[in-house]
Specification:
Blueprint lengths: L2 H4 L3 E15 L2 E19 L2 E13 L5 H10 L4 E6 L5 E4 L2 H16 L5 H15 L1 H8 L20 E4 L5 E9 L2 E9 L8 E9 L2 E11 L2 E9 L2
Antiparallel strand pairs: 1-2, 1-11, 2-3, 3-4, 4-5, 6-7, 7-8, 8-9, 9-10, 10-11
Helix pairs in contact: 3-4
């Protein structure tokens, strides 16, 4: 087991996603979505690592229209996750799936009292379908906008370049660079053609086996997304 895992018994990180949309050459909008996350590591059982993730604070950008408030309430559905992760940093199972389904039933009932319409119904249906398909839920929770930054390949130290397939259809390349007690993991991509992604890059930094910070940047047509992680305690 790597030292990084040994130090993950309880850590607090700030996760943030910034979405910039270039609506036209002279006008862009930006939204931020931040969370403080407590990560508890409970050890390894049958070749898998057991984690609990608790979101203790949400921080949304100042703009809060009706849909923003709606999405904010739905975000609380995923503020407590119990999962298993393999050595490659992939979520393999959600252990509190029944809890999430029951919680969604209550949240949906509460939201239905104040939100109506076809768009709302479609969104409710998408969440319900997601919770009925564990594989889709795993892909969603393991994405960079959710909790993928926590499980990025640093779970188990490696010394040579590694590749893995992105759900977006291209190949992520992870290149470790060690300098003293600092390990940097540089992220690049190949085969971006035909995926709708113009650019993809990232960097994760750990010191003395402690993951301290990282980011992933994605550029798609008029959208620029930056997902970041910072160890705060």
């Amino acid at each position: 087991m790597s030292g990084i895992l040994q130090n993950l018994h309880q850590k607090i990180y700030r996760l943030e996603t910034i979405i910039t949309e270039q609506k036209n050459p002279v006008y862009a909008t930006q939204k931020k979505y931040g969370r403080e996350v407590e990560v508890y590591y409970y050890g390894k059982v049958k070749e898998e690592h057991e984690f609990q993730i608790l979101v203790t604070h949400f921080d949304f950008s100042e703009e809060e229209g009706t849909m923003d408030k709606f999405l904010k309430k739905i975000s609380y559905l995923f503020d407590e996750i119990e999962c298993r992760v393999d050595d490659e940093g992939n979520i393999t199972a959600i252990d509190n799936l029944l809890f999430l389904r029951l919680r969604w039933t209550k949240i949906q009932a509460d939201l239905s009292e104040t939100h109506k319409g076809e768009a709302v119904d479609r969104y409710f249906s998408q969440i319900s379908d997601l919770l009925e398909d564990e594989k889709k839920l795993i892909d969603f929770l393991g994405s960079y906008q959710m909790f993928g930054l926590l499980f990025n390949g640093l779970l188990q130290a490696f010394e040579t370049k590694k590749k893995r397939e992105s759900p977006e259809g291209f190949t992520e390349i992870m290149t470790p660079v060690k300098e003293g007690n600092t390990m940097s993991l540089k992220i690049s991509a190949e085969n971006l053609e035909q995926t709708g992604t113009n650019d993809f890059r990232g960097l994760f930094v750990s010191r003395e086996d402690q993951l301290e910070e990282g980011f992933i940047e994605v550029k798609k047509n008029n959208f620029h997304l930056k997902h970041s992680l910072l160890w705060i305690g």
